[in-house]
Amino acid sequence: MADAVFRLDLPRNEPVRAYAPGAAETSSLAKRLAEMARECVEIPCIAGGREYFTGKVTEWRAPHDHSKVLCRWHAATPEVLAQAIEAAERARREWQAAPYQLRLAIFLKAAQLLAGPWRDTVNAATMLGQSKTCFQAEIDAACELIDFWRFNAYFALHQIYPDQPQSADGTWNYIDHRPLEGFVYAITPFNFTSIAGNLPTAPALMGNVALWKPSHSAMLSNYYVMKLLEAAGLPPGVVNFVPGSGRETTAALLGSEHFAGVHFTGSTEVFRGVWKKIAENLERYRGYPRIVGETGGKDFIFAHESAEVEALVTACVRGAFEYQGQKCSAASRAYLPRKLWARIKDRLVAEVKGIAMGDVQDFKNFMGAVIDERAYEKIAGTIDSARNDGGARIVAGGGASRKNGWFIQPTIIECSDPRFRTMQEEIFGPVLSVYAYDEDDLAGALELCDRTSPYALTGAVFAAD
C-alpha cells in the first residue's frame, strides 16, 4: 500500500532566479545579505543532535572583504569525533530499518525548504563566505542542491528499489538494498555548497549514516545546510557535522573500525592520501570500505577553424572566469587554430578587460575574490612565473591585489610552448592558457590536448564541420 500511495513525478530542474534590478527576489536577497554581513555566527560541532563548542576556534572572514568576520567555528576534538561515531552507530540501526518512504520524504522536505524560506539564507551565506556572485550562488547553493535532493529521491524510488530480479514459478527473488555497516565519511569542498550538501545526504537517503567534515572555507553555508536538514526532520546522528583539521579528522575517522566508506570531492593529492590511509588500515575494518571520489581537472576548449566566433569567445570568458575559475570544471586551457586565434584575440582581451570584479554584494560584479590567502599566493605565483618565462606571454590581466580581499584579475596566457606548465597543471583560479596550433596539423593538436595533462573531467569542442 505504501508503494501505491508514495509516488513521485520526474522532477523538473529548479528554475534559476535572474535577480534582475528592482525585482522582489533581488531586494529580498540583498536584505538578507546585509543582515548576515553584520553577524558573526558561532558554529559548533553537531554530533547526535548535540552541539559541541570545543574552544578550538578559527575565524572566517569574507574573501572579498577582510574587515568582515562572518563566523567563528569550533574544531572537533578527538573526544567529539568519538561522540560523533557513537552517535552515528546509535542512529544507524533505527535509520536503516525505517521505511525508505520516510527517508525520502525528509529530503524532499529539505528541498522544499531550500526552494522557499531558506533560499535567501543559504545563498547569502554562500556569497559572503565563498565570494560567489548572486547568480553563481543561485545555480549552486539553491538550484543544484534542490535538484540533488529531488532527483536522488526520485531515482531511489522509481529505479533503484524497483529494480528486482525475475522470479521463476513458485519462487520469489527479491533484492534488499542493505546500508553499510558503519559510517560514511563525507569530505566536502569549498567551491560548491550543493556538493557539500549532497555528499553526506546521498548515502543517508539510502539508509546510511554519515560524519560530515566541511571545508574550513565553506563553513558558514555548510552550517546553514546542516540546520536546514535538522529543520526538515532529519533524526539526530544520521548526519554529524564535524569541522576540523583535515589531517587530524581523517586520521581519527579512518582509524575507526566503524568506518565503512568515504564520499569525497577535492584535490587529487588529498584523495590519493585518503585512499592510501584506507589501504593501510584495511585489516581493522569490519568490511571493505566503499571509496567514491571526484578530484581535479585541467579542462580544455578545443576549436576547429570552422568554429563560430561568438560562441567561442563567450565560452572562453564564462568557462574560465565565472566563480574566479575555482571549479574543477572551469575552462583552463584552449587549443585554437592560429588564424582563428588572430581573429578573436583582441576581442577576447577586450571582453576580459571589461569584466567587473569586486564585492559580491554589488550584483553588477561578474567576479569576486579567490577563496583564501593560500589560493591567492599560488595563483599569483603561477602568473608571475609565466610573466618571466620565454615560453609564455600574458595578453590580458595578470594583476593581483590583497589590500581589501584576495583579488586576482582574470588572466589570459598565450603559450608558445604547448607543454608550458600552465597548460598542464591545475591552477584553480581565473587563468586561461591558450595555445595556437597549425591548422594543417589538426591530428597533432588533438594529440596534444589528449596527452599534455594527466587530468580529465570536462572539455568542449567548437566546430561547424
Q: Tally the helices: what do you get?
A: 15
| Anisotropy-based shape | globular
- Termini gap: 55 Å
Provide mean pLDDT, rounded: 96
The overall strand count is: 18
Strand content: 15-25%
Uncertain spans: none
Strand order of the largest sheet: 13-16-17-12-11-18
Largest sheet: 6 strands, mixed
Secondary structure class reads alpha/beta
Global Rg: 24 Å
Helix content: 40-55%
Structure commentary:
Helix content is 43%, strand content 19%. By secondary structure, it is of the alpha/beta class. The strands form five sheets. Strands 13-16-17-12-11-18 form a six-stranded mixed beta sheet, sandwiched between helices. Strands 8-7-6-9-10 form a five-stranded parallel beta sheet, sandwiched between helices. Helix 5 (119-130) crosses helix 6 (134-160), helix 6 (134-160) runs parallel beside helix 7 (193-205) and helix 11 packs across helix 12 (338-353).
